[in-house]
């Protein structure tokens, strides 16, 4: 279809807009605001709320501007450009009529409604609502529906915009919400009131223009105007979703998405949304020292003294493992301290992935998240993007739905919400794919922009390096790496990983990696929020845990130095595509807990190896000087340097195994200590396990 | 109309029988493979003809066959009032209650229903009847009327009054065959007591004249 520009008149003002624009988009291009309930930029057009009515000059009736295109407008009788009015008395009257109908059955319970203060219906009724009701009949009441542990329903408030139905069907890809009945009795429900099985289900709360679907864990907690809003970054996965953290006093009360077209569009996963519940539970709020097998609260002075004593021992027998939620600054401080002490056994890959150390392209999601939409063939290797990065999975689904992109999977044949070709299960299938002549390899070779998504989980085994090589080799041979396109994409699961690899939080000369440190022989191990390792293997070592939550690491620790969670300190995170983003402090650390970088700075003072920075600004200056890539805020390198990138020779030479490639994330809701402390996520996880048990009967 | 819900008590399972399978084949053949979801209404109808109502296992079975999400079939089944979401008696009596029938005595029929059968949507004690009030079925010239759905199919029974209707229900209860169509001297919807349209020559073809169809050489008889 041609997308020619067309001249139209909006409220007497001439504008030129593409033919394919809807009247609503055209009006917005002309600077007019059109009220709407059912219309949403990222969903299909339903046209059922009628709030966006505009007047078409010459037409007998108002038209729903969201559902009519500029190309369908009719010009005047003498060849005048078509005209519409968005501010005329007719439009106002029409919208007032619509609003009156919507309010007929809408309860007047704003004072007890969680949507109050941020409700589209409330806001728009200020302009278009009547003072009183002319409806003396009985009002409609609707039974509330069960939708799971996240979405609270109050269905009498529903205005049947069907945004939730369209979101779950189109974006989330699990068609489980629908509208049953008809007319006055139409109701939104899930099939037989089962919980929605999507990792993105929380987004229907944001989409709901009224208070019908609200957040269950946040119910009756706060009013939006009481909250302080902090625009920051999510760390629950390596996507780096842009979020807004709302707090009242010291308590974080909710997390909402922000729009970032390059990363999360405007969706966030349920884990991101409900991580805040974990921020107030299981917290480490003062230093602890283990005495006779029991942890005893201690002062900072005492705790730092113990730590300094242990860290001044034999440097070759000291190790440091950074966890998944660390900011670049704290890893930098820890690394600088390690360097000063001569400690070389440091690792930021607590899962033991064989990646990093080389060029940046080797470990980045070079295709970029937005680039997924440009790819015409995608091969997913050893990853379940649905659990590892639900937002990226939604992007893949989006391009599969709209662009006819072909998807193949090597690994577990799980439900990814879109159809794919199951190419194989093991790394052997990956290595052998290049030699095949037909099947998915042909699709990849014929593709202009093929993308290979390699899950970090595939690299944790002994043959991780060889798998990396095999994936790189395949990428090179199908032309996934060219001058303006780099489709070799590593999907990380840890928010800290890319920054950690960037600043070289990796074993130095003679140093041990995570696997090495876990095979015994260490005197002292510092765990920087690292909880996903097998603590039993640290047997014999003195474990210093620096972190925010009482989880596996703190349970094993001999010394606990309480740190800040990511909402309690400013920090730099690089997401899986290498996009460096800034997280900001929303609330202060709990109790006596300190910002993590400052703990290492204080420790260095005790060890007489004072780190050369006194505040975060100085630390960042050093960080950017040593690792310039971390200074490029909100920049995803993508295909930069692809021409020099030799994908064939990354990783290590060797035989790949034939064990099936699993996913790095077995339980989506429990991937880190903060998520594990969240009640809402625990309820989701319990529900996730339950249907499987029923199905197995 | 009222809120429509699935029946509380549902059968364990559902399977189409041989006769239904043949009908399904016929209906599925009408749509391209990629658009087979179009057959959802015929499929629900076939299920209802087989069992008398649409059960939850039937909804799932149809969804699986048509590769639709359960909720989509559920939406359709609850949207159309012609689908019974709960079991009905041997004879489903659908009384038209829309204005023309109401003016011609539908309310009398409804009170007969209430007396003889019981509450709307509920099966009578003997299991032989269920009655519902429905909207206009397009037979206003023969008001008041009912649609009777039983093992013999779906049929209009028209030109009723309370007495005739009671007699009809008696016959149905006794298992007798009943007359479909108008229960008056009329054959169809012609005016009462008319002589019009009774001349047999109207129907033997003798009055037909050859005509010339436009743009053809052929003469049609």
Approximate helicity band of chain A: 25-40%
Named CATH topology of the domain at 91-182 in chain B: Glutaredoxin
Approximately how much beta-strand content do the residues of chain A carry?
Answer: 15-25%
Low-confidence stretches of chain A: 692-697
Number of strands of chain A: 26
Order of helices and strands of chain B: HHHHEHHEEEHEEE
**Helical content band of chain B:** 25-40%
* CA(first)-CA(last) distance of chain A: 52 Å
The name of the CATH architecture of the domain at 91-182 in chain B is 3-Layer(aba) Sandwich
Radius of gyration of chain A from the CA trace?
28 Å
How far apart are the termini of chain B?
50 Å
Structural class designation of chain A: alpha/beta
Rounded radius of gyration of chain B (Å):
22 Å
What kind of oligomer do you see? heterodimer
Look at the structure and give the CATH class of the domain at 91-182 in chain B: Alpha Beta
The total count of helices of chain B amounts to 7
- Residue-averaged pLDDT of chain A, rounded? 93
Largest sheet of chain A: 7 strands, mixed
- What percentage of the residues of chain B does DSSP assign to strands (E)? 5-15%
The helix/strand class of chain B is: alpha/beta
Mean pLDDT of chain B: 92
Write the layout of secondary structure elements.
The complex is a heterodimer of chains A (697) and B (221).
Chain A: E1 5-10, E2 13-18, H1 23-29, E3 53-56, E4 63-64, E5 83-85, H2 89-104, H3 120-128, E6 151-153, H4 163-172, E7 177-180, E8 187-190, H5 203-207, E9 213-215, E10 228-233, E11 242-248, E12 251-257, H6 270-274, E13 288-291, E14 294-297, H7 300-311, E15 318-322, H8 328-341, E16 345-347, E17 377-381, H9 385-388, H10 390-403, E18 406-410, E19 421-424, H11 427-433, H12 440-446, E20 450-455, H13 464-477, E21 488-491, H14 497-502, H15 514-517, E22 524-528, E23 542-547, H16 552-556, E24 559-562, E25 571-574, E26 580-583, H17 596-606, H18 616-626, H19 673-676, H20 679-695
Parallel strand pairs in A: 1-5, 15-16, 15-22, 17-18, 17-20, 18-19, 20-21, 22-23, 23-24
Antiparallel strand pairs in A: 1-2, 3-4, 3-5, 6-9, 7-8, 10-11, 11-12, 13-14, 13-24, 25-26
Chain B: H1 18-28, H2 40-51, H3 56-65, H4 70-79, E1 91-96, H5 99-103, H6 106-116, E2 129-134, E3 146-150, E4 153-158, H7 162-173, E5 181-182, E6 211-212, E7 219-220
Parallel strand pairs in B: 1-2, 4-5
Antiparallel strand pairs in B: 1-3, 3-4, 6-7
């Amino acid at each position: 279809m041609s997308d020619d520009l067309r001249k139209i008149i909006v409220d007497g003002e001439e504008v030129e807009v593409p033919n394919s624009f809807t009247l609503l988009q055209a009006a917005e291009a002309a600077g007019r605001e059109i009220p709407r309930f059912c219309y949403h930029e990222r969903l299909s057009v339903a046209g059922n709320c009628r709030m966006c009515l505009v007047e078409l000059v010459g037409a007998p009736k108002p038209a729903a501007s969201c559902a009519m295109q500029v190309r369908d407008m009719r010009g005047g009788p003498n060849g005048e450009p078509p005209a519409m009015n968005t501010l005329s008395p007719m439009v106002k009257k029409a919208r007032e009529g619509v609003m009156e109908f919507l309010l007929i059955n809408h309860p007047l319970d704003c004072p007890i409604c969680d949507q109050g203060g941020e409700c589209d219906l409330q806001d728009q009724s200020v302009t278009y609502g009547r003072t009183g009701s002319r409806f003396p009949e009985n009002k409609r009441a609707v039974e509330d529906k069960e939708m799971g542990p996240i979405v609270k329903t109050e269905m009498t408030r529903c205005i049947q915009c069907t945004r939730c139905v369209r979101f779950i069907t189109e974006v989330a890809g699990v068609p489980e919400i629908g509208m049953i009945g008809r007319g006055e009795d139409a109701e939104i429900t899930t099939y037989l009131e089962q919980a929605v099985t999507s990792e993105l289900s929380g987004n229907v709360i944001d989409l709901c223009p009224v208070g019908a679907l609200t957040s269950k864990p946040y119910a009756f907690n706060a009013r939006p105007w009481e909250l302080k809003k902090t625009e920051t970054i999510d760390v629950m996965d390596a996507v780096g979703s842009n979020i807004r953290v709302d707090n009242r006093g010291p308590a974080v009360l909710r997390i909402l998405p922000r729009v970032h077209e390059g990363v999360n569009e405007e969706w966030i996963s349920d884990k991101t949304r409900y991580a805040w519940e974990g921020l107030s539970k299981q917290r480490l709020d003062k230093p602890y020292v283990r005495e006779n097998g029991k942890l005893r609260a201690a002062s900072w002075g005492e705790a730092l003294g113990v730590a300094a004593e242990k860290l001044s021992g034999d440097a070759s027998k000291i190790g440091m493992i950074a966890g998944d939620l660390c900011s670049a600054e704290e890893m930098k401080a820890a690394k600088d301290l390690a360097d000063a002490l001569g400690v070389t056994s440091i690792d930021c890959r607590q899962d033991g992935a064989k990646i990093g150390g080389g060029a940046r392209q080797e470990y980045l999601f070079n295709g970029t998240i937005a680039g997924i939409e440009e790819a015409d063939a995608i091969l997913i290797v050893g990853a379940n993007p649905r659990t590892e990065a639900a937002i990226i999975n939604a992007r893949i689904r989006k391009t599969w739905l709209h662009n006819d992109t072909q998807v193949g999977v090597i690994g577990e044949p799980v439900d990814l919400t879109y159809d794919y070709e199951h190419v194989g299960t093991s790394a052997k299938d990956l290595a052998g794919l290049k030699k095949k002549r037909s099947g998915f390899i042909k699709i990849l070779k014929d593709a202009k922009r093929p993308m290979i998504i390699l899950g970090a989980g595939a690299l944790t085994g002994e043959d991780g390096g060889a798998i990396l090589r095999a994936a790189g080799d395949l990428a090179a041979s199908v032309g996934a790496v060219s001058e303006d396109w780099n489709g070799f994409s590593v999907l990380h699961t840890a928010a800290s990983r890319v920054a950690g690899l960037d600043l070289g939080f990796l074993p130095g000369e003679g140093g041990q990696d995570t696997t090495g440190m876990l095979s015994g022989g260490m005197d002292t191990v510092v765990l920087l929020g690292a909880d996903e390792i097998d603590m039993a293997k640290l047997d014999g070592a003195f474990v210093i845990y620096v972190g925010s939550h009482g989880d596996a690491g703190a349970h094993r620790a001999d010394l606990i130095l309480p740190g800040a969670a990511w909402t309690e300190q400013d920090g730099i995170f690089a997401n899986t595509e290498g996009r460096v983003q800034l997280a900001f402090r929303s609330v202060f650390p709990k109790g006596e807990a300190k910002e993590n970088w400052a703990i290492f700075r204080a420790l260095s003072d005790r060890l007489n190896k004072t780190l050369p920075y006194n505040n975060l600004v100085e630390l960042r200056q050093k960080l950017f000087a040593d690792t310039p890539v971390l200074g490029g805020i909100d920049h995803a390198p993508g295909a930069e340097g692809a021409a020099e990138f030799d994908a064939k020779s990354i990783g290590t030479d060797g035989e790949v195994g034939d064990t099936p490639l699993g996913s790095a994330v077995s339980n989506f809701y429990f991937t880190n200590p903060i998520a594990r402390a969240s009640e809402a996520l625990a309820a989701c996880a319990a529900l996730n396990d339950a249907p499987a048990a029923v199905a197995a009967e | 109309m009222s809120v429509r819900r699935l029946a509380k008590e549902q059968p364990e399972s559902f399977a189409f029988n041989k006769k239904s399978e043949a009908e399904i084949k016929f209906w599925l053949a009408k749509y391209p493979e990629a658009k087979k979801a179009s057959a959802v209404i015929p499929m629900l109808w076939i299920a209802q003809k087989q069992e008398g109502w649409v059960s939850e296992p039937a909804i799932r079975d149809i969804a699986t066959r048509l590769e639709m999400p359960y909720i989509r079939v559920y939406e359709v089944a609850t949207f159309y009032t012609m689908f019974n979401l709960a079991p009905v008696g041997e004879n489903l009596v659908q009384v038209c209650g829309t204005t023309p029938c109401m003016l011609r005595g539908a309310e009398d029929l409804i009170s007969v229903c209430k007396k003889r059968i019981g509450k709307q949507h509920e099966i009578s004690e003997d299991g032989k009847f269920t009655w519902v009030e429905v909207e206009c079925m397009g037979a206003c010239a023969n008001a008041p009327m009912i649609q009777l759905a039983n093992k013999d199919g779906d049929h209009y029974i028209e030109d009723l009054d309370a007495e005739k209707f009671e007699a009809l229900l008696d016959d149905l209860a006794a298992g007798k065959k009943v007359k479909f169509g108008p229960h008056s001297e009329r054959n169809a919807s012609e005016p009462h007591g008319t002589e019009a349209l009774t001349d047999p020559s109207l129907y033997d073809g003798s009055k037909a004249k050859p005509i010339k169809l436009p743009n053809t050489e052929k003469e049609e008889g």
